[in-house]
Known about the structure:
The protein has 537 residues and is α/β, with parallel strands linked by helices. It has 16 helices and 15 strands. Strands 1, 2, 3, 4, 6, 8, 9, 10 and 11 form a nine-stranded mixed sheet that branches. Helix 5 (161-175) packs parallel to helix 8 (241-271). The N and C termini lie far apart (60 Å). The mean pLDDT is 91.
Amino acid sequence: MARPNILVINPDQMRADALHHLGCEAAYTPYMDALAEDGVSYRYAFCQNPVCVPSRCSFTTGTYPHTNGHRTMGHLLHDGEKNIFQLLKNNGYYVWSSARGDCLAGQDKEWYKKCITTVYGKNGPESMKDEGRGEPGSQRYFSFYRGVVESDHEDGLCHDNDYQWSLGCEEFIRNNKGDKPFFAFLALNAPHPPYRCEQRFLDLIDETKLQKRIGTSKPENNKPSAEYALCQDLGIDGWGEENFVKIRKTYLAMCAKIDNYIGQVIKALKDSGQYDNTAIFIFSDHGDFTGDYSIPEKAQNLYYDCLSNVPLIIKPPKDWKIEKGVNNNLVELIDFYATAIDVAGVESDHTHFGISLKESIADKSKEVREFVTCEGGRLMSETHCMEQVEESFGIEANEYAPRIHIQQRQTGEHTKSTMLRTKDYKYVMRLYEDDEFYVLKDGEINNEINNPEYADIIQDMKNKMLKWYMETCDIVPFEQDARFTDDFYLASLDTYAPIKLSGVMRVLMKLTHSDFGTLSSKLIKLFRIDTNKYSNK
């Protein structure tokens, strides 16, 4: 059989409980539900950072955000940083990507070409007509709610970027000649806010079946200061439940819209006879509050399940053994990296921390992880980690203004923090305020960090976090440093000695480099080098 193709569909900001087969009765996601029946859907898949760029830098490298310094929206993959696009391209895959990834720098054309064979850049209309934000000062202004999108097309769709990119992916699949296996990465915008959608998808959502919203946290719940600050500064706490219903219904409609595009792409695979030999991965980079805790959108250092628990559906190649349906194992998005290269049959070109899900796909009883993690925030001193908006853009008019102001304060709301979650408990270490601890069967309502009943469990989770940090805190490149040669020593002495070595002396040093210290001492005495002058060197 030919090497398997790999298709990744990556919606932005989709929470796991927005899918019908994962328990959301109001959701309309028939294509993802069908793929879960034909493959595996992980109920407990978690992202490694609750915002876009660091999460994507993590799952495309198989490393944690802290490993290579990816905790901010402003730091893409570093120049030359090893990633799955480049790895598969170097191993014979044709790499196709939509014009959105939030990890690769497109203006760095030489490196970009090393990672991507073809980028599909056709975009939709610059703006879509919706109900608008409302007036500044109104509760709607920072709610991200925009309402119904008008369509000028017979299909009832606004032919936006997601429409164009999905169509481009479908055309690529149908036109594929099979000369090379392909790795197609279809990154999409929705259901990322603003919350707005066409009427045809809103009509699919039964608002009477919406899940109960988690209400505003009270002071006695002892929650993180970022949550209280967001709730206050966004100002939608008392907006009215009917308005939160609109947000939640519209969000599910956006998920239904994405599901529709997923169905079209999968149909292209089946029509062209490539479905069986294509591994399909569908997962999001992180979730969305959608009104839970009276907050819309996301936050850069909060880790509730609505933000960190994401869909992960995998339909493996036909020759893989599979136990179909919902899988209750704890997994992380970095496991995508390990599983994808397992599908491709290639070895990673760098140390990574993902676990291939091949055994778990074959047998649901195979445990993958004891715990999962998520991390974010910044140190007080890391002012370069603050999100910025150009003043000319008008920061106060930006819907992210409250979040940006909070991140720029030096009062601790932005604190660096890390979550460790098991099936039963969630622990969050926070540098500048109380930690968090939740008994998950009781929901993430009351922070029980100071409850002595859980002291031993909390200490055990702290110990696990310390060991995990030690195992993952850095990686050593596979390649040896090519500069570490005999000339490294010679160049050092040439630089700092007040003379130039003769050719003979250089040969002597090469012959005796194993006793470099002894030879250096003799040279110092011979040429009467003033060591005090070069002691700082």
